[in-house]
Amino acid sequence: MSVTRATRARLEHELEQLLGEVRPHLLSQTVSQEGTGDAADEAGRVDAFMELERLNGRVAHLHRLLEDSGQPSEDVPAGTAAAGRIVELRFAGETTTESFLLGTIEERDAGIEVVTADSPLGRALLGQTAGTTVTFVPRQGRPPLSVELVAVSTAEVAA
Hints:
This protein has 159 residues and is α+β, with helices and mostly antiparallel strands. 40% of the residues lie in helices and 18% in strands. A 5-stranded mixed beta sheet has the order 3-2-1-5-4. Helix 1 runs antiparallel to helix 2 (39-68).
């Protein structure tokens, strides 16, 4: 799945921060307090270990995202639905349209609702161009839905 260059840079910066500052600080807190203090000190060490585990999970997730990011969405032809692009959709039976960012959950702070590229709708939209109608199954056991891809914008959203 592709991401925009801006999103890739943001994810790389977060990874750098975690590996360079936050994780070493937490690790030093857990090591420097070993074998000393009372139950409150021990509770502080447990909290630090738990936070370290959470951060290790985030680091692994960021590594996977960056490894799987592939071709930057800016390199996909204009007007083609790709991760990092804004898609304007009209659901079957509706007269109005809705706009979504086709991307990753990490881009959810962009001020627009996100359709993840690996969701059933996202997979149906990837590589399509404006004017195309796609059909997808939202969840197992649900009836298929059709949606028209009205427009695709390469405009960057505020991050």
